[in-house]
Structures are given as structure tokens and as C-alpha cells.
Specification:
Length: about 425
């Protein structure tokens, strides 16, 4: 492998690091998935098909034979449909598992519904989920191809040792802990809401088993109640979730147990508990997955055998780092971008670790609107528009974790930058 013509002054350990040349970088860029695997197409297809399926779904009428009880499978189906667009875009690992689950639920619950229009819309939902699953798998396969190409182009070395040789250790093991903690807390809240909902359903079923069945005639209705007259002449007001489903002068069954009463066709509704479970569970699951992935990738960067390559690097005015091939001195073709923070300034035992530990949980950051994100001691170390040689430690791919070692303005000073967000391919 051809070496860079001007080795950077970060110590003798880096003198043999090969350069990431344009030919190798072009092969790496060409390993990206095809245009059809872009998350945009999967998201648009899913949103359009789900909207059509909801609009064409036949309305169910509450009756004693088919009571309108809490629909737990429907809650899972709705939650997966809401979370799937984000998972298609940002978490293909989670989409790879969730998409087949949602497809099975749709096929089992919705396809038997009457009407060709509704059935066709739900088939379109399953097709959109299939497209999203195939796109997620293609993106993950492209990541593996890109990692393999970088390993072939670079020299294998222990990433933690390479960066530690400059006087810093990236991350100190805290990467991903905040989203893991918040995600676990939200998931616990979701589980608690489900438990409370199931407890309410159980109490309602026990009370209904003890209640007396009374037939009554509907004499009037409001937005939330029915006015009925029993056969013995009593006039009652009963809560109703769907009063419009009951025609005047129709007969309904009322369950009574002392002061407690409800319609036999409308068991306890756990909608508020289900809504709380979805509101906490969806972001909780996403954060937990994001944190676990970030922690695993950062641990591999600190302890695993990772490649090292010489590249060119620059900062834009918003503090985002852009990486170029080592021989692209004109900076014409950026390979990828990422948000970095320094973890050391200087070398040896006086190297000061910081930055990443304070902001080590910006796992899904796309735009950090700060002019001095990549700073050393509160200042931009190099001109934002200028290219700077650096050693890239780690394999770049969409969502990956990297470290960069470069000179920091003095003959012996060095800066180690670590990503605080996933790599983004332009």
C-alpha cells in the first residue's frame, strides 16, 4: 500500500500506517446499497399503504356477540406501525425484526376482513413492509462489505492501544449509557402501564361474572351515555363508548352489580393504559436499541482489532467533520461526515480526557448547530475550510464509530477526536 508523502507527527507508531487512496475509497463508496434501499422509499410506501388501510377498514359495531373490549394485539400492531418509519430510517437492525412481526399481525388480523378494497390495502401494507425489510437487510449487508474493504486497505491494530499511545483513551466506557438508562426507564413505564391495564380488565371480568343481566330498551343517547328503560319500568343512564352504534328502541343488555353497571357489549376499556404504554414504549425501545448499538460499537473501537488508515479531514462551519481520501488534496469528493469531539490535547501522562464523556450520548445527531464542536480548549484547532492529515482508527460505515489522531498545532502535540454520533454517508 502506498504511504502518504508527508507523514504526520504523532509518533513513530504511525509511520507505517497506509493511506486510504481514492481507488480504495471509490470501491468503499461503491459498496453502498442501491437507490431502492434508501429509507425514503420504504417510509413513503408504508405511510401511504397504512393510510389507505385505515381509511378502507370496515367499522366494527359493538354487540354482545362481539364486544368492544381492549385490543392488545391491535395496540402492538398500531405501535409497530408508528415506530416503523423511524426504524426504517435510523435503526435497520430493529426494523429487521419488527417488520416481519407487523406483517404477520396484519396478515392474521386484517386480511380476513370483508371487502376486497380493505384486503388489497392490507396486502399493500405487507408489500411495503417487505420492501423495508429488504432495504434494511441490504443496508446492513453494505455495512459489512464496507468494513471488509476498509480492513483490506488498512493495517490491523488494537484501536485502544493506537489512540492511547497519544495520551488518551476514547470514551472511558460511558458511550451509550444515557440512552440505555432512559430507554430502560421508559420501557419499565410501558410494562407498568400494560400491567395496570390487564389488572383493570381482570377486575372488570370478575365483576361482570357476578353481575345480573338486565335487558333494556334504548330511549335516548348523548355523546357518552345511553338512556335505557328496563322491562320492570326503571330508567337508567349507562356509560357508552360508542352510543351512535345503538339505535333508538333497540334492545341492549345491561350488567348490574349494586351501583356498578355497564353495557354487556362494552367491557372495561384500557385505552388510556394502552396509550401510555405506546407513548413510553416506542421511544424507550428506540433509545435502548440505539444505546446498546453505540456501546457495542464503541467497545469494539476501544478493545477490538480495528484498521487504521491515513485520510484527510476538515471541519465545516457547523462543526461537522468531513473525511476525504488521502490523495484528494483538493477536497473534491467527501466520503462521509460525522460529529466529533476531542478526547485529548497533548501527549503523555498530562493528556487531558474530556469532551466525549460529556457528550457521549449524541447517538442520532444529524445537525449540531455549533461553530466550535471540534475544539481544543474552547477554540477551533485548524481552519474550518482547510484539509488536515489524520489517522482514522476504525472502519467507517453508516452508523459506525471512529477515532481520528492528528497534530494539534505543535511539533509534539496531538489531538484525538472520537465520534459522538453515527457516521453519515452523503
Amino acid at each position: 500500500m502506498t504511504q502518504t508523502s508527508a507523514p504526520i507527527s504523532v509518533g513513530p507508531a504511525f509511520e507505517s500506517v497506509p493511506a486510504w487512496l481514492s481507488a480504495d475509497a471509490a470501491a468503499w463508496a461503491g459498496a453502498r446499497p442501491g437507490w431502492w434501499a434508501r429509507p425514503l422509499w420504504s417510509v413513503l410506501a408504508l405511510l401511504a399503504s397504512v393510510a389507505a388501510a385505515i381509511g378502507l377498514e370496515p367499522m366494527a359495531v359493538c354487540s354482545e356477540a362481539a364486544p368492544c373490549g381492549p385490543d392488545w394485539v391491535g395496540m402492538v400492531q398500531f405501535g409497530l406501525a408508528v415506530g416503523m418509519p423511524y426504524w426504517f430510517a435510523r435503526l435497520p437492525e430493529l426494523a429487521l425484526v419488527a417488520a416481519p412481526v407487523l406483517a404477520v399481525i396484519v396478515a392474521w388480523e386484517e386480511l380476513p376482513a370483508t371487502g376486497w378494497a380493505s384486503r388489497s390495502a392490507n396486502l399493500a401494507v405487507i408489500a411495503a413492509l417487505g420492501l423495508g425489510w429488504a432495504a434494511a437487510r441490504a443496508r446492513l449487508a453494505a455495512r459489512r462489505r464496507q468494513r471488509d474493504l476498509v480492513r483490506q486497505a488498512g493495517a490491523a491494530a488494537v484501536g485502544h492501544g493506537w489512540v492511547k499511545s497519544t495520551g488518551a483513551a476514547p470514551g472511558r466506557g460511558r458511550r451509550g449509557l444515557v440512552p440505555i438508562a432512559v430507554g430502560a426507564l421508559l420501557c419499565a413505564v410501558a410494562v407498568g402501564a400494560v400491567v395496570l391495564g390487564l389488572r383493570g380488565v381482570g377486575e372488570d371480568e370478575r365483576q361482570a361474572a357476578r353481575a345480573t343481566r338486565t335487558e333494556a330498551v334504548v330511549t335516548g343517547r348523548t355523546d357518552m351515555t345511553l338512556k335505557v328503560r328496563t322491562h320492570d319500568g326503571r330508567r337508567l343512564t349507562v356509560d357508552a363508548l360508542f352510543p351512535e352504534d345503538y339505535r333508538l328502541e333497540s334492545t341492549v343488555v345491561v350488567l348490574e352489580d349494586g351501583p356498578w353497571r355497564r353495557l354487556a357489549a362494552e367491557p372495561y376499556d384500557a385505552f388510556d393504559r394502552q396509550l401510555a404504554a405506546l407513548a413510553a414504549g416506542l421511544p424507550g425501545l428506540s433509545l435502548l436499541t440505539t444505546g446498546l448499538l453505540a456501546r457495542r460499537r464503541a467497545a469494539a473501537l476501544r478493545r477490538g482489532e480495528v484498521p487504521a488508515l491515513r485520510v484527510l479531514k476538515r471541519w465545516d462551519r457547523k462543526g461537522r467533520s468531513w473525511v476525504y481520501a488521502a490523495d484528494d488534496t483538493a477536497g473534491r469528493r467527501p466520503l462521509f461526515s460525522c460529529v466529533c469531539l476531542p478526547v485529548s490535547t497533548g501527549a503523555g501522562e498530562h493528556g487531558k480526557a474530556g469532551g466525549v464523556d460529556d457528550l457521549d450520548d449524541v447517538d442520532e445527531a444529524d445537525d449540531v448547530d455549533t461553530a466550535d464542536v471540534c475544539t481544543v480548549d474552547g477554540r477551533v484547532p485548524f481552519p474550518a475550510a482547510g484539509l488536515r492529515e489524520a489517522v482514522m482508527v476504525g472502519a467507517p460505515y453508516e452508523g459506525g464509530e471512529l477515532a481520528f489522531v492528528m497534530t494539534g498545532g505543535g511539533a509534539e502535540a496531538s489531538v484525538v477526536d472520537c465520534t459522538v454520533g453515527p457516521v453519515r454517508v452523503p
